[in-house]
Amino acid sequence: NISRCANTSCIDIGTTSTKALAVLPNGNVLESRQRFYPTRYPKPGYAEQDPQQILEAVKEVVNGTLGYIAETYTLKGICFSSAMHSLMAVAIDGQPLSPLIIWADTRSTSQAGHLRNTELGHLLHDQTGTPVPTACCAISVWRKRRRISASPRAT
């Protein structure tokens, strides 16, 4: 019975919150959940989040949404959305070694500007379709120039 089929659960991991929907094939929303989390600005130009808070938010909204529909509907698929870039150092075992440096972080603006105008910057743009962001490759350059290491355990 198609009316018993929750076609999709959609999860959006955003800058300020994570949201989840359970949606029927006709587009009607069965259930929605949302959990907010903060962004820290410890210094001018810095924009960081706690990766553990985001993971917990994802688990909470997914479990809540799917728990609501589990006894009545059949799940046919799950989709995730997470626009924008972030960077974090990760240990070999997958544990975070740094805060999540989000797209709004501008500490490496000058390095990103330089990288954009290099052969590597153009290659990255061609391969990804987006300009060199300040919070990805440029952060690595920024850290290296300041001799900042995330951890000897980082991958």
Descriptive keywords:
23% strand; 9 strands; alpha/beta; 155 residues; three-stranded antiparallel beta sheet
Tally the beta strands.
Answer: 9
Which of globular, elongated, flat, extended, rod-shaped describes the shape? elongated
Uncertain runs with pLDDT below 50, 5 residues or more? 151-155
Portion of residues in helices?
A: 25-40%
Structure commentary:
Helices cover 30% and strands 23% of the residues. The chain is of the alpha/beta class and 155 residues long. Helix 2 crosses helix 4. The longest helix has 19 residues, at 51-69. The N and C termini lie far apart (48 Å).
In short:
This protein is of the alpha/beta class and 155 residues long.
Topology:
Layout: E1 5-6, E2 8-13, E3 17-23, E4 29-36, E5 48-49, H1 51-69, E6 74-75, E7 78-81, E8 86-87, E9 100-102, H2 109-116, H3 119-128, H4 137-145
